[in-house]
Each structure stands twice: as C-alpha cells, then as structure tokens.
Design goal:
Two copies of one chain form a homodimer.
Chain A (H helix, E strand, L loop, with lengths): L7 H8 L3 H8 L7 H14 L5 H7 L4 E8 L4 H17 L4 E8 L4 H12 L5 E4 L5 H12 L4 E4 L10 E3 L3 H16 L4 E7 L5 H13 L4 E3 L3 E2 L4 H14 L5 E4 L4 H10 L8 E5 L3 H8 L5 E4 L2 H17 L12 E3 L19
Parallel strand pairs in A: 1-2, 1-3, 3-4, 4-5, 6-7, 6-8, 6-9, 9-10, 10-11
Antiparallel strand pairs in A: 11-12
Helix pairs in contact in A: 1-2, 1-3, 2-3, 5-13, 6-7, 8-9, 10-11
The structure holds a DNA duplex (16 and 16 nucleotides).
Chain lengths: 354, 354
Amino acid sequence: MHDRPPTLADVALRAGVSYATADRVVNGRGGVSDKTVRRVHAAVSALGYVRNVAAANLSQQRVYRFVAVLPEGSNAFFARMRDLFEVAAARMAADRVTLAVETVAAFDSDVLRARLDLLAGQGVDGIALVGSDDSSTVEVIATLRSKGIPVVTLVSDVPGSERAAYVGIDNVIAGGTVGRLMMLAHGGRSGRILPVVGALSARDHADRLQGLREVIGGDITLASVIEGRDRHDLVETHVAEALSADPSITAIYSAGAGNAGLIRVVEALPATTPRPIVILHELVAHSRRALEAGLIDIVIDQRPEEEVARVIDGLRQLADRREPVMTAVIVPTIYVRENLPPEHQHTNTGHPAR
Amino acid sequence: MHDRPPTLADVALRAGVSYATADRVVNGRGGVSDKTVRRVHAAVSALGYVRNVAAANLSQQRVYRFVAVLPEGSNAFFARMRDLFEVAAARMAADRVTLAVETVAAFDSDVLRARLDLLAGQGVDGIALVGSDDSSTVEVIATLRSKGIPVVTLVSDVPGSERAAYVGIDNVIAGGTVGRLMMLAHGGRSGRILPVVGALSARDHADRLQGLREVIGGDITLASVIEGRDRHDLVETHVAEALSADPSITAIYSAGAGNAGLIRVVEALPATTPRPIVILHELVAHSRRALEAGLIDIVIDQRPEEEVARVIDGLRQLADRREPVMTAVIVPTIYVRENLPPEHQHTNTGHPAR
DNA sequence: TTGTAGGCGTTATCAA
DNA sequence: TTGATAACGCCTACAA
C-alpha cells in the first residue's frame, strides 16, 4: 500500500548486480558490459526508478551558485527586478541555492565582460544577464558556455548567442498588443497616435513600434516619433511640444522609459478637451499612480515576477542537467486601473546606494 | 572563500553542546535548559545556520503526496487545468512529490466529502480543491485541517473556511477590469452591454457582474442579464434573441461558460452593421480561435498555469511548515488577438474518459 | 568489468 | 537534561 519509491539499491538487487554497477549504468559512466546494461535498464523500468535529486545533491554537497547581472542606474523597472531577485534569494537559502544580484554600468560591455570572466573562475553554476546587441556579449556567452556555465538572457535577448534560454517578452508582440488596444479604444473613429521611444536605435523600442505599425489601420495614423532618451525631462518637453503643435493627436504610446515626464504633461493638460488615450510600458510606482489617478489608460507589463521565477527555475534545471523545460516567451500583461496587483514593498530605490 | 553553508554540527560545536542538543533547540523539541537554549540560538545566528531541507526530507524518507480535486465534466477550462497538473506532476517525480489529480461530480458536495474523507485516511500531505459555497465543504475543510492536512482552495474560494490559502482571481476585480475595457472601447459614446452568466446564483458570476457595474458609467447601460446555465446551446438561443430584440446593444460580456454558443451567434451576425464588442472569460480552444478570427475582442483569463504553479508551491511550503509565503490573489490577465500565448498541446478532452 | 564502503546533513531512537 | 549513532539515497574513491 504505502510503498516508498524504489531506490537504486532496489534496482541493483533486481538486476542482480552491485549498487555501483547499477549506478554506472543509470548515470552513464561507462565501463559496463552490454548484457549488464540491459539487465539494469530492464530493472529500472520494471520498478519505475527515478533518481532522487535531493539525495544526489546532498551527497555531492552541491550548492547552486547563481548570479544575476542587472544594469545599474535609476531605472524603476530594474530596481523592482532586483527586489524580486533578492526576495527569491532569501527564500531559496533553505534549498541550498544562492543567488547573488550584481549591477554593472549599463551598456558598458567591457565592464560586463570583465565581471563575467571573473565569475567564470569562481565556480558559478549559472548566470542571468540582460542582453545587449553588441558582439562582445555574444563572445562572453560563448566563453561561459564552453566552460559549462549556462547563461540565460533576461528582458533583452542576444539572438545570435549560445544562451540556453531567453526569459522575456517578444517586443513585436507587445507593440502589436498596444496596436490592438489602440484600435479598440478608437472604436472605428479616426485618430493619430504619437509614438515615444528612448531611441530608435534600441532594438526593443524599435520592435515595439514595428508591432504597433503592423496592427493599426483604418483611419489611425502615426505622428512622427519622439526620441526621449528614456529621460523624463526630455520626454516631458518633447511630448508637450508635439501635443500643442498637432491638435489631431488622439493617443500616445510610450514604448520606452522616462514616463514620469509624459505623465506630467498629461496631468497639465487643459480639462476642456478629452485627454488623449495613453498606453505605456512597465508597472512601476509612477505608472501605477497615474493609472489609479485616471491619467493614463493602460500599462503593458512584462511581469518581472514571472520572469524572475522562470529564470531561477530555468537555471536550476540547467544546473541539474534535467530536460530543459523552459517554457516559451513571457506574455505581456495588460493592466488597467481595475486589475492592478496589490502594491509591493519597495526596497531598492533604483539609485546607486553609494 | 568557498565556504560551505554551516551545518547543525557547526552550530553544536560553536555552542559547546552535542549535535542532539542543538537539534532539540533548533526544532523546538523541548527538554533543554534555558541557558543551553540561549547558547544554541546565539550560535545559530552567529553562523547564519539554515536548515537543509533536502537532508531533512531524506532522513525522514519524506514523500509528498498531494491531491488536486477538480470538477469532472466537459468544461474546457478544467480540462486545461488538469493537463497542467499532470504535466507538473510528471516534472516533480524526481523531487519525491506526487500529485494525483482526481475528478468528482461537479456540485455534489456529498461525493466530494466522501472522497476527501477517504483521502484523509490515506496519508495525504495536502489537498487542492475547487471551492463551492455550501456549508458541507466548510466542514470537510475543517475536519481535514484538524487532521493536519492543509487545504488550498482553487479558482473558487470557500471564504468562511479554514483553508490555508486561496489561489485564484478576485472576481469583482475581473468584472471591474471588463468594465474599464468596455468604457475604453466605447470611447465616450453611449452603449448598452448585454451581460451573460451561467446563473446569478453562482457566486463568481455574480461577483463579476458586480465588478462590471461598479465601473461602468456615463452613457453606458446594462441590458437585462441572460442566464445561460453555462450551456452553449442555451447561450446561443438566448443571446441571439436578445440581440434581435434590442438593436441598441453595443457590447456583450459573458461572465460564465458556454461561450461556443455566443461565438456562433456573433459569427452569424450580418456583416452590414459593426458587430458588438465582445469580452469573455478563459482562454480555451474556442475562445482562442474566435479571438484569432476577430469574432471577439478580449478574453480575460485567470492564468491556470500560474494557478497550478502556485498551488504546488504553496502545498509544498505548507507541508514543510515553512513560513507560508503564499502571495496574493492572481491578477486576471487580458488577452487580445496579438498577445496570445503559444498554443499548448491538448491532452485531456474535457469529456469523461469512460 | 564489477564490487565495497564512507560520507553528505538531518531525524529519531536509545543510552546515560 | 544531554549525548551518541544508525538510518535515509546517492556519489565516489578504492579495491578486486
């Protein structure tokens, strides 16, 4: 009735071999005769043996050491992500897995490279990093992989690289989603969307814009793109100018950061005319408040909570060399005022501590 | 540099007591003098000792036995959920946790009770079940809890009960979200929403309607509610009637199941007039296809994948008597045509196998 | 090519 | 009130 799961000892017994031989077969260590191999395999499937990962790790004193490398700086989104990693790290101590969160200067691939080389020498079992497009990053990932250290790209992929997996959204899909919502919100009427990005050269922003273009149609047009460099001051002035220059604008889509500036513009708009429809990315403190205040309509979010969970799960699987289950890309989630998740406790300010 | 995490032996050594004594203190087994207790606690925090769960479970030959009880029948949503549980169960074999998925006749609390009583006698470590409102269920949960078996309610809560946690969406929030989207889609114009539910007596459906009511305003009104008993044939005829009887209807919100019927009605609508805005619940085969075909606008989904993950994680934590982290309710997710997740492999048909 | 045995960190039993 | 120690299932060094 209450039979415990079979152990390797059970398998060995049934196959009529020693424990060590059964182990050699099961773990493919070689040096076993064909006849024996078959006997052991038969016993394994007859008994339904499944290796006990916990016991295995215990015997090896296996400690998982993972590192997440995030861009440093004052970005609210990555501050949130850092929080999430740290909370997760605390929860995992009892499972003998450590997760260190590091920050490197954003967009400086030399610094990143140096840091990763260092980590490679220190017995790290897996690394998660926010990808960037340059070839230098591709190389580092290849180097790490050759040393047996799997790399998972996070938020932004490094397509040509040997990363084991990408955890993040598809930005074309995200932009397309925004497009659909814009269509819906215009309800067949004509309209003009003002697109705001950090820079058109940024891959993710460009992808989002492309997704938007693919979906909008009918009487909806695009105004010329504003590049706000993800800085709220620049976003503020440029958007304010664009709105006063072109009264036909009915909607704003901000594909990048610096949205505090955009929100200030909307807030300052005269109450006489209906404000434009506003959709932007990432649920952070200021976008949440704007949504609650009715200043903006929709926030499209890449769910950092889910991303963090997947990164950790994925790294663990890779370190265990289990079948990599690694499910598909993250689905961008749509927040309106009514389905906001409960507010979390904020720890990292996003500003460098020192 | 590469120091392994401290073990209880390290703690004992530092506290100047035997291993067994340190164990007694750490696990609160009593029978230790105050002085000693303090010494051990001091050592624990000095060294930063964290109990190694894997080793503990190994020594106890701990095998987690969880059971998920789902309503049987031809509901596509629960078929999907069953799939998800089964996939998760397979993945967990190596971690010595078994998860059996059972189905009981929907809405028959006597059958449910009998099944649960049986399980209680069989050494189950935790149960997930889809709640229903009746007092009988409240009692069973209390009984299980008194036997030390934690219960997690899933999809539908049992508020007055002693369930350890609820994993599911807040249906008022879900309805409110729909309300907001309806407002957005009408863009200030007037409109009339046709609400479709399974039954007004169903708690979740009623909650969704309430959420909707709380948000809509302006020139948006509600037509009288259709009760379709979650049957696609009834939904089909009633919705068709309502639409032809009231041409002022601009939108349909289906808070329940039986949406295949609703979709057929929309499909058959004359192409002369713009079709109504349609929002419904749960991403399943037919709602996905309708979204892709442009027959409906939005699907609001409770993310069964995430629910299953949380149930398992929660049950495990409860069984381990760790701090129950159990995060808040699931946030209903909004799908449009563009952000559909990749289609999954379908296993359970939703129809009883025999 | 095959077998033996000690150790991983914890629990629990038996002694002192 | 305290201490010693045999499991638990697996890995691995060593022996045959």
